[in-house]
Amino acid sequence: MAKTALIVGVSGVIGSALAQKLVQDGWQVYGLSRGRSTIPAGCTSLTADLTNASSVKEALAETIPDAVFFSVWARQATEKENIRVNGAMVSNVISALGERLRGKHVALVTGLKHYLGPFEAYGKGEVPVTPFREEQGRQPVENFYYAQEDAVFDGAKTFGYRWSVHRPHTIIGFALGNAMNMGQTLAVYATLCKEKGWPFIFPGSKAQWNGISDMTDASLLAEQLEWAAQSPAAANEDFNAVNGDVFRWSWMWPRIASYFDIEAAPYPAQMMPLEGRMQEAAAAWQELAQRHHLAEHDISRLASWWHTDADLGRPMEVFTDMSKSRKAGFTGYRCTLDSFVQLFDTLKQHNIIPR
Question: Where is the PRISE-like Rossmann-fold domain (predicted)?
Answer without folding.
Answer: 57-354
